[in-house]
Design goal:
229 residues; homodimer; elongated; DNA-binding; mainly alpha
Chain lengths: 229, 229
DNA sequence: ACGTTATTGTGAGCAGTGCTCACAATAACG
DNA sequence: CGTTATTGTGAGCACTGCTCACAATAACGT
């Protein structure tokens, strides 16, 4: 019954990942050491390679898990709100993003930090990597259907309409360009703000970054998405 | 006359940094190797430590240079515009940010990527790290003085006004909170967008990221900063 | 139930890393 | 011109990722 070994494999893989996360949180991904993990597990360092092809592959698997975790978090926050309460949903997901990031700073850093040059995400990492964004996209669609109109101007730049046709198709949605532009702008602002905070670029600026962040989310919801209530 | 040695020191330091940048661009900061640099320079690896206390210190010096470079770039772009042409100045600095980042992706990644956990920026790195943001702040002040009004709403959250008093004081400016909030939002959005693009999070979304970026800058200038022309 | 096969763990070993240190050469300075 | 401080050297330490031949053993087919 393909049992004892498969079970052990699961446990050991999980323990390796757990210890890897601990190390990354305290020393950074660059200083993650498979040998140290092996030592902590009282195993030979070479045994690690029975579970992960390489250090990089371990990191990749952690990244995929992180994508799933942040998506879970945002989806859950969104799901708690009444479907037609667009404004609350936006605020909930914005807050959940930052909350997750603050609770798991090194996990956030692993996802949204500098990748290795030339790094091509393995095919099975791209789907999880889109989940968290899909939550936003569903919100935009719902907002549009509910009659909200993004109060932004499409710029007169040639090529914009064409580009956004591609974007809509790539994202598998169909929205007014205004709404999509507003949504992507708000999205970029939230992640920009979180990265600034987590990566230490505004330490000397804010006393309570959360206050600013909430104001940002509120203001962008009103001003860009047009979901003022 | 304290000559031959001081001159050599400058040259060698510069060459080390140059080779370090090449390595970082091709293999990432995590894989930067002092020994490899020494090999390329036909020197003993221990000689590197006559010029830099450690690998981390080399990286820190590169970061400071990068801060200076991006600030130079933004300042120069801004300086090319008529002082009273707020809108052009905003667009010029937004574009120059992305242009610089695309031209020096690994340098951008070094600055805005995940820092080592617990990393405390050495005192002499914090000033250069503010220069590029000061360009934005000066623009906001000029816009305010010129009579532009940010068309955004301050959220009714308790604590916001107090927080923003601190922010204004920390940044050494005095602006309507609306303008400051709008400015920081736009700033976060631009950096969020650039990081998304450079770190590979929107590869499957955009065909011409630049088109979207310009639209973003244009739209945020109009919609948030109120500098529609 | 038994023999074959595939999986797991081992320890030695290779090539690489950052960094230190005693030492020699030499430019800079009083 | 002699002393001092700076620069470069090579050996060496402790560490890393990763490979490989080998032994133990769970899983599977007959």
């Amino acid at each position: 019954m393909t049992g004892i070994r498969a079970a052990a494999r699961k446990e050991i893989s999980a323990e390796i990942k757990r210890l890897a996360r601990v190390q990354i949180a305290s020393k950074g991904a660059a200083n993650l050491s498979l040998r140290e993990i092996a030592r902590e597990m009282q195993m030979a360092s070479s045994a690690m390679y029975r579970y992960f092809d390489s250090r990089d592959q371990l990191l990749t698997e952690l990244i995929v898990e992180n994508y799933d975790n942040i998506a879970d978090s945002v989806e859950k926050a969104d799901a708690k709100c009444a479907r037609d309460d667009i404004r609350s949903r936006w605020m909930a997901m914005a807050e959940s993003l930052r909350t997750w990031a603050l609770r798991h700073p090194s996990d956030y850093g692993l996802i949204f930090g500098t990748p290795v040059p030339g790094y091509a995400a393995p095919p099975d990492t791209v789907d999880p990597g889109r989940r968290y964004t899909n939550v936003l996209l569903r919100l935009l669609v719902d907002a549009h259907v509910a009659g909200y109109v993004a109060t932004v101007d499409i710029p007169p730049a040639k090529g914009f309409v064409k580009e956004y046709k591609h974007v809509q198709s790539n994202l598998g949605i169909s929205l007014p360009d205004e709404m999509l532009l507003a949504g992507l702008a708000a999205w970029a602002a939230m992640f920009g703000a979180i990265s600034f905070e987590l990566f230490g670029h505004v330490d000397q600026v804010f006393v309570n970054p959360g206050t600013h962040y909430s104001a940002l989310a509120h203001m962008l919801g009103e001003q860009l998405l047009g979901i003022s209530n």
